[in-house]
Amino acid sequence: MNLRPSIAASLSLAFTLSAATVPVSAQNGQAPAGPPATETRPVTDNYFGETFVDPYRWLEGDNADPEHMGKMTDEVAAWTDKQNAYTRSILDGDAPGFEFLKPIRARLEAQIQPLMEIGEISLPHMAGNRYFYSKRTGAQDQAIVYVREGAAGAPRKLIDPFELDDEGLVTVAWYAPNDDGSLLAFGTYRAGDENSVLHILDVDTGEWLADEIPGKTYIAGWMPDGESFFYQRLEDLGDPYSTQVRYHKIGRHWTQDPILIRQREAEKLYEGLNVSDDRMAKLKTTWGPEFNPDRDGHWAVVSYWTSTSANDVWVMNLDEWFRTGKMTLTPILIGEDGRNDATVAGNAIYMQTYVNAPNGRIVKVNPHSPARDAWVDVVPHRADAILEGFSIARGVLCASYLFDASTRIELFGLDGAQLGALTLPGTGSASLSTERDRTEAYLAYSSFNEPETIYHVDLATPDAAPSVWEKLDVPIDPDSVVVKRVKYSSKDGTEVGMFIIHKRGLKLDGNNPTILYGYGGFDISMTPRFTATNFPFFDAGGVYAVANLRGGGEKGLEWHRAGMLDRKQNVFDDFISAAEWLIQNGYTSPERLGVLGGSNGGLLTGAMVTERPDLIAAAVVAVPLLDMLRFEKFLMARYWVPEYGSAENQDQYKYLRAYSPYQNIKPGTRYPAVLLTAGENDSRVHPMHARKMAAYLQAATTSEQTTDPILVWVDRDAGHGQGKPLHLRVRDAVDIRLFLMWQTGMFDQG
Q1: Going along 49-202, which residue ranges are E strands?
Q2: 95: which residues sit within 8 A by CB, 6+ positions away?
Q3: How confident is the model at residue 5 (pLDDT cuts 50, 70, 90)?
Q4: 417-425: long-range contacts at Cβ-Cβ below 8 A with a sequence spacing of 24 or more?
Q5: Counting CB atoms within 10 angstroms of each CB, which of 68, 83, 479, 616 has the fewest?
């Protein structure tokens, strides 16, 4: 589960309402008898002397092949069709007794569609005098890739996904120009499967070259000749642990490309390093190798991910490899915890590391003699801020920090000399696009009440106010809401931060519909992000809260460690305490509180359902992990064992069993309303989690299904969420907003 911040942000769905209260009445007629019945076929598992009966194992699919667990079967497909039809009948207002939802849905669609058509724009990639970026506006399903000749040049369309697929299901996953901008490598995939195919485009003519490389392929870096590059792909598309690093020359068929690194032969990277056989076996089911070549073609940094937030690092002499074919790897850092991001600039390696720096520091490493005792501190550790990352421009090192979950960018010379802080438009989230040959850079900035804007900046004059390069027209008033930063105590007394956003002048009477969002994992930070479709909800008196839970990266390495493995319960406790704080401080009540989360955040909201069903009215559990005793058997999920643990380990089994949502459903319990979602093409989280949880909750709950339903929606045209076309995103947003509005009392059923 490569759950980076952009993915987490994409799951931070909010919802809207056209009026503060919309009283409606249910139509006369019989409500649905309930969800389709699900057959139980009990399977008994024994974990270290403890048995657990799994009544819905068959909803995983065909498990006959241990290497490819959970293949879709006809009977699972039929079950999915019935559940999807039931869910649609309710959320579309077609089912008897739910007709009152139909006009509300129509109003929501009319409101949400134009707000989502505002669009989005990316930071530009600079190459020579060309500026490459993507932009989606209006009713376009997918973003189009453009190029400008000069920063102020007229946009020229390069890649329009709709021309590749008139259903809007093809997306451009990534793109990378060579140094002079004459060629553009890019990857496409369809229906959210993330299995990107690499293509090459001639930027002058717009023609696609014959080169095409399949296999969930990503470019690692162009070489200075502009006609060759390194890339990563899966050796076997059905095996997520089969990464290869290869070298390609334009015009050569990819099957003839030399292989530098194979994840299946990870032991070759560790020869002579005294790595145990047990560790070597585990290395073959982690995120695996990553290759970062210097665009001058002299060096490459080779990383091998040993967990979700830790990697080993070597330096490789590319000159030697090009000359002789011999690959010599010299260790820089082996066996340490923490993310170690390194890049080459000139004759030096700059590396962000947590070694002796729990909040991160940047060191300069000599590639000829990279031993740790020869490292030079360039950006030292600081106790008051978290180093999130860095980039390099001409003579400038740009360090991005988190100060209480908001961004600050500070500039340094390559020798560590302080050059000042970059002027930002406000307190929010920012990212930077830089290139080694210039001090010109581009800044993306947004906050909860400030729409994302792309600014032009000159790093040579950091004090100057940034100038707008591109912005989207947002027909809302950002000043209509206030953003608060509060602190609260979790169950064990740990202080946790939380953002709260609502309309100015809102009365805190304990009766405001409120949505609490959280994530809490994988060292990912929840920072301020703008969502236009939130504003009608704020106008209607709604409150939106984002809690910075343990397990995230908001407070550095120790904050992440405090929410992983045997301390994962801290994350759930932090979320529960956030809900209790909102209630105790007059924002809302259990009857008007909903929770929202996706992926690892779906595990979070699933745990809230089973641990504190009394505290909430509703939960959206999107693309979730829920069966934590079996999660690692499916797709790429062994990547996440270092984050969660494994039920194959007796000590880890105990705490996984204690919180795993699926195993902690208790028949005869009054559960809140739940909407579970999944993607049939998800290559990260298997849809079996949502299927099994839905079936079990439907059978277990004592809640009235006409008022507190358990619904599941498995999207046949989507994966984990990436690349979903606009029309499907609008449908999903309306589903979630309608469900949460209904369940938090923003209108009455009558």
Answers
A1: 50-54, 120-121, 125-127, 130-136, 144-149, 156-159, 170-177, 183-190, 197-202
A2: 31, 32, 86, 89
A3: very low
A4: 419/459, 419/462, 420/462, 420/463, 421/462, 422/398, 422/457, 422/459, 422/462, 423/462, 423/463, 423/464, 423/465, 423/466, 424/466, 425/450, 425/453, 425/455, 425/466
A5: 479
Predicted confidence band at 9 (pLDDT cuts at 50, 70, 90)?
Answer: very low
Three-state SS at 728: helix
Q: Does residue 474 register a pLDDT over 90?
A: no
Q: Which residues contact 80 (CB under 8 A, 6 or more apart)?
A: 680, 691, 714
What is the model's pTM? 0.94
Q: What is the pLDDT, as a whole number, of residue 25?
A: 33
In angstroms, the CA 499 to CA 501 distance is 7
Average pLDDT, integer, range 381-386 = 96
Burial 486-518 (b: 16+ CB within 10 A, else e): eebebeeeeebbbbbbbbeeeeeeeebbbbbbb
Say if residues 523 and 360 touch (Cβ distance below 8 Å): no
Residue 703 has pLDDT above 90, yes or no: yes
pLDDT band at 45 (very low <50, low <70, confident <90, very high): very high
Question: Distance between CA 615 and CA 593 in Å, rounded?
Answer: 8
Contact 483, 499 (CB under 8 A): yes
- The residue written with tokens 């000829």 in the block is 368
Q: Identify the residue whose tokens are 């010599």.
A: 328
| pLDDT tens for each residue of 475-531 | 888 889 999 999 999 999 999 999 999 999 999 999 999 999 999 999 999 999 999
CB atoms within 10 A of CB 135: 18
Give the 3-state secondary structure of 614-647.
HHCCEEEEECCCCCCCCHHHCCCHHHHHHHHCCC
**Alpha-carbon separation of residue 578 from 337, 402, 592, 660, 746 (angstroms):** 29, 21, 15, 21, 22
> Please, what sign has the CA dihedral across residues 87, 605, 691, 719?
positive
CB atoms within 10 A of CB 19: 13
Which 8-state DSSP code applies to residue 59?
G
Task: Report the alpha-carbon distance of residue 434 to residue 417 in Å, rounded.
Answer: 19
Pairing of strands 618-622, 593-598: parallel
Share of the chain above pLDDT 90, in %: 87
Report the amino acid identity of residue 401: Y
pLDDT score at 8: 31
d(CA 29, CA 78): 28
Do 300 and 318 touch, CB atoms closer than 8 A?
yes
CB under 8 Å, gap of 24 or more: what pairs does 354-363 form? 354/557, 356/381, 357/381, 358/556, 358/557, 358/558, 359/383, 359/385, 359/386, 359/387, 359/556, 359/557, 360/386, 360/387, 360/388, 360/556, 360/557, 361/387, 362/387, 362/390, 362/397, 362/399
* pLDDT tens sequence across 303-345: 999 988 899 999 999 999 999 999 999 999 999 988 999 999 9
Three-class SS of residue 536? helix
| Residue at 542: amino acid letter | G
DSSP 149-179: ESTTSPPEEEE-GGGT-TTS-EEEEEEEE-T
Q: Distance (Å, rounded) from C-alpha 184 to C-alpha 199?
A: 8
